[in-house]
Fold:
Amino acid sequence: MSKCRYNLDFSKGFKAMMRTFRHLILLCAAALSFSAQAQLSIEVTGAGANRIPVTIADFGGEAGLSRAITGVIRGDLERSGLFKMVEQAQMPMTEASSVDFNAARSRGADALAAGSIGAVDNGRYEARFRLYDINKQSQLAGAAFVTTQPLLRAAGHRIADVIYEKLIGEPGVFSTRIAYVVKVGVGRFELQIADADGQNAQAALISKEPIISPTWSPDGARLAYVSFENKKPVIYVHSLASGKRTVVANFKGSNSAPAWSPDGSRLAVVLTKNGGSQIFTVNADGSGVNRITSSSAIDTEPQFSPDGRFIYFTSDRGGSPQVYRMPASGGAAERVTFEGTYNVTPRLSPDGRSMAFISRRDGGFRLAVMDLASRQVQILTDSHKDESPSFAPNGRMILIATEIGNRGVLSAVSIDGRIKQRLSVAAGDVREPAWGPFQK
Amino acid sequence: MKKLIIPALLALIVAGCSSSPDIGAEQSGAPVEGRDGKVNTVNAGGMGSSQLPAVLTDPKSILSKRSVYFDYDRFDIKPEYADLVSAHAKFLVNNRQFKMLIQGNTDERGSREYNLALGQKRADAVKKALILLGAQEEQVESVSLGEEKPACVDQNDSCWAKNRRGDMLYSGEF
Structure:
């Protein structure tokens, strides 16, 4: 395991800023087998209305490393659709340079980041930077990350996260990971884990049979999913670092639709062992099975609200599939969606205020978002086959599977529908995305 | 319906004579053949379909047909499949050592997990019919593959119809 941490001794000038960044940051190199095929490539197809003009100066230090880290930071900020890159006025420039605020302002930048990367000891490097508010002529942030060359990109994502948080006012998600399933040809399915920018894809599971419904444990260390490797759907919990798998539910009939409780101790699952598809809860080790719906209808796709009080789910008890919610321990269900005849796959935003779901409108399956307080629904896409929405941990984007030209791709859509990114793999069909939690 | 039951029963009787009654998956280790020292490998995971009694695989036997097709958004077994389902029920009644896995399938439209539940309803409908006709609960497991294992991958009505299906598999075939 390699470490990337704030160096508390770094520079006297940074001491004040360091207080907010005092926690240790560990970037764990997961012991997963590397998948040679299929890196995700990202294409941005929309941008925010008001992008913040920002200069990311070329980092100082060893040319190859500094170019790489600068590229990661710029790429992250640009792809978010919230920033416009402004060329630097001062050259060269590092975190140690005094800033020519007038020159930066004349280029139109509202913010400027400058930094450098240098060797510390035996293969470790330190990436340092400062972020400035050009109009107020003041420093907004400064930090240093110790990293190794293989984890250089991770250090770049950390810096982009700091810049994003300071300028946007909410945490960045550049250091998070995503999971998704790639179908390669006939009969090869890979459950892959990649960085949020699609890089460093690694296969956690390779199977001849389908894999669906991956979902991250709240601590980001495990995935629950449904695998058909035994010719029927069985629910597993898979520890990513060790590759150890636990069968959570393999009862007679089908076992599917796992969803973690917010504290990571239990899973809501769908079992058919008692007839019909019904929702149960079960401990993460497979013990303590408890039935929580008792209907003669289909009850599936459970999802805990972030506060743990409710379970949202899909049911056809009213004649067509609609979203309902009930207390997490079971009990009377309340219908949540009313417009249209097909509303499925409820996914709650991290703040619990809105719900993403898939709605059939004009014959197409489209990503929709409901404001839970007002029950207002907004359709965010004009696709024909959207599936499996998953919120970014900061709630800004929703990752979905969709289809373009008969091929499965992933798409990230901002909650206002303005920013759209497409993530595709040249070698196969991509589906079943799940956006992981913030890295601890 | 009567017309088909008699040949099916006859086929069963014939099959009963030609194959040993304890041909369940666990007992079916192939014999060692002495001639050239070659040892046949035992497949503990189940036997290949070639080792099933001929009545289940002979194209002339109704029991070689394993699929029940459903209408869009429907889960009832259409009258045209009644003979097929009752023939399989009779086989299960007469061959209690056999187990069956029914895999329900759907077309690709809509949510994967909701489709999994729809496929389960189709598999459950087949299972219920088999049990009403005398198969035992322990013999039959109904599961769903949802939209995950399409028999046909084009996006049109005839293809989707082929995917709205329940498949009946015997021990050794799953």
In short: Strands of chain B lie at 67-69, 100-105, 140-146, 165-170. The CA atoms of residues 99 and 139 of chain B lie 4 Å apart.
